[in-house]
């Protein structure tokens, strides 16, 4: 398992590279320039500076999450070509510091969506929670709640400047149906994938979180059929997936191990985490251990193992433990993600041992 850890950068994360060095098995840092808004150019000097910080501690820089896609590209406005040119320029620059995979998403307006950031679990820890009934007709309420809980950390996909124009944004997406969104994604991919092939950088789209349309906005990376259609838009290994079990697992109809077995050769980046889905469709994030939630995490790891998976992996979100919610980023504390890594590596190592003993 090529294990990685998402780090938000100096001054933007309460966790340091020195903390991360003490977690067994972490080989790479998943990074980004988090002060860049979608559509903005990335400067080479800044890219190099962060890459140097990461390599100086012995980590790989191979995965960037995210380079956010400007809304004009998703909406299909004439200005999209300008923003795609900037995106291409960023892909080329990132290839110079060893980036091999870029994780991005194509969700209109909102990235991941929750109704509570610090919902208490029975064990006294707390975690991100989605309550269906709390999603009203008014998205502004949800935005305010999330931004209040962010403790002034920048949150990818939750840029206050962009979200301050929520009415305008919703209006711009008025005619964007699922079909239109697929067309606009195809347009984007047809321009960038040839560049990715030339520069050896794989694109890995992140699924929609949660895995259903919200506030009337279409969402297209949320089931086996949607993913099949996405991969066929541009049939190149450079057009691939970030397979996030937490996002796809919010809908219990998604058979995650079966999807991994089907799509493994196009999965470049695995986000592995667990969610507990309640009967009414609400869900909360829980520990990585399979028994604690609705995702059979050990079976997920097994599906990767039996297909000789060599892509990058990270624990995705974690619960907030032992009071760390006072200072950590929502969903990105130190302890539960570190525990998650030990669980994932434990399952993986035992499968490896079996294999090496001549078992299957
Ligand atoms: C991440 C996503 O925190 C998360 O759920 O996995 O926000 C992911 O970084 C983006 O969707 C990728 O663009
Ligand atoms: Mn994820």
UniProtKB/TrEMBL annotation:
Its EC number is 4.2.1.8. It comes from the Bacteria. GO terms for molecular function: ferrous iron binding; manganese ion binding; mannonate dehydratase activity. Keywords: Iron, Lyase, Manganese. One of its GO terms (biological process) is D-glucuronate catabolic process. Pathway: Carbohydrate metabolism; pentose and glucuronate interconversion. This is Mannonate dehydratase. It comes from Paenibacillus monticola.
């Amino acid at each position: 398992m090529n294990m990685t850890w998402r780090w938000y950068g100096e001054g933007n994360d309460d966790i340091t590279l020195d903390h991360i060095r003490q977690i067994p098995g972490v080989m790479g840092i998943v990074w980004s320039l988090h002060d860049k808004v979608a559509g903005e150019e990335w400067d080479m000097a800044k890219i190099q500076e962060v890459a140097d910080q990461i390599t100086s501690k012995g980590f790989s820089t191979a995965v960037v999450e995210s380079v956010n896609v400007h809304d004009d590209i998703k909406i299909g406005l004439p200005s999209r070509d300008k923003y795609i040119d900037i995106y291409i320029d960023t892909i080329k620059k990132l290839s110079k510091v060893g980036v091999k995979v870029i994780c991005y998403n194509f969700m209109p307006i909102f990235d991941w969506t929750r109704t509570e950031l610090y919902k208490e679990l029975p064990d006294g820890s707390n975690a991100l929670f989605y309550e269906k009934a709390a999603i009203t007709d008014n998205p502004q309420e949800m935005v305010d709640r999330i931004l209040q809980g962010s403790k002034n950390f920048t949150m990818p996909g939750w840029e206050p400047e962009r979200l301050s124009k929520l009415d305008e944004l919703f209006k711009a997406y008025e005619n964007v149906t699922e079909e239109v969104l697929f067309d606009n994604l195809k347009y984007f991919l047809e321009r960038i994938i040839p560049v990715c092939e030339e520069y050896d950088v794989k694109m890995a789209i992140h699924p929609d979180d949660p895995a259903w349309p919200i506030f009337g906005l279409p969402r297209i990376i949320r089931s086996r059929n949607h993913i099949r259609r996405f991969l066929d838009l541009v049939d190149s290994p450079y057009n691939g997936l970030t397979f996030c079990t937490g996002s796809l697992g919010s809908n219990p109809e998604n058979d995650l191990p079966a999807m991994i077995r089907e799509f493994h050769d196009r999965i470049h980046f695995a986000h592995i985490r667990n969610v507990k889905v309640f009967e009414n469709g609400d869900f909360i994030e829980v520990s990585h251990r399979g028994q604690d939630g609705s995702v059979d995490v050990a079976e997920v790891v097994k599906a990767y193992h039996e297909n000789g998976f060599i892509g990058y992996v990270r624990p995705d979100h974690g619960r907030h433990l032992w009071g760390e919610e006072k200072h950590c980023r929502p969903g990105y504390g130190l302890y539960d993600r570190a525990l998650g890594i030990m669980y994932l590596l434990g399952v993986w190592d035992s499968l490896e041992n079996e294999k090496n003993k001549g078992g299957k």
